[in-house]
Write a structure and sequence with these properties.
This protein is α/β, with parallel strands linked by helices. Strand 16, helix 7 and strand 17 form a beta-alpha-beta unit. The longest helix has 14 residues.
Amino acid sequence: MFAPDSTRAAVLHGPGDLRIEDIPLRALGPDDVLVTVDAVGVCGSDMHYFADGRNGQNVLRRPTVLGHEAAGTVTATGSGVALKAGTRVAVEPAVGCGTCPTCRSGRYNLCPVGVCLGSPPTDGTFAEYVIAPGRAVHPLPDAIPLEVGALIEPLAVAVWAVRRAEVELGDRVLVTGAGPIGILVMQVARAAGAAEVIVTDVNDARLAQARELGASAVLNTADRFPELTGVDRLLECSAHPAALWQGLHTLRPAGRATVVGQAAPSVDGLPLAHLQRWEIELATAFRYAHAFPTAIAMAADGRVDLARVLTGRFALDDAADALRAPVKDPSHLKVVVRPGDRAA
């Protein structure tokens, strides 16, 4: 059974300092799988680590391989894993301990000691080979190409966000932020039965993409936030506090707001009296739990169009360019790094 002891990987040493290096691979454990990585999506968190050496409260303290949105092919398995070599899989990067009360309740996304691939100091998936727990890889049907399979992870984020938002049949939904997650949230909300999904952003190119992918209406909020009322569910995906505060005032009495984008450590100005007066619920969403199977099914049967969200491809040697691409060209939604490709 093929089991390399090293892999080429994109290692972040500091802000803007990404190096392609050979790094050692740990030995394959009985419950592990070795995955030959086909594609890795670039996430906003990767871009923050690359630009600033931190993402929110998590700080880069030692060289770390970035990347956590991966798909590839199982190349080798430990003795306790039933999957066969050759199985095409999406990798679920956030893994709980599996034994604490939180994990045993099913909310392993909140495990106090859990780790996530590509979240420093845990090495990620910008690499030719990755070792992952067998319980954290999900077989992909033939209907999903491997490079599209790399987007199952952000789709799982959207699935979990819509679950946390409790979107129901016939709901009027407002999604603030037309980045990759916002556009996926919009598609999942439509698939969940929302009658109307309005998307806001300050970028016309992204709003046009949201409309093409199924938004009921798109609104540019660069100058002012529109006077919307009667919204049942707000999903805040922009990570801008102003969008949340403005969005809260669009909700009907007893509506529900869900924070999806990376929140600031603390934010002033929460309209608590308004929330109390109208019994508006404020929820949060962090990663996902048990969302990969649903995400895979939605992508496989076409309820969500992942292929049109993928807007760029880069070789591993060009990983730094991939991390800069969405900033240089905001029309990009998702770009992927393909570790098996070579730079032109």
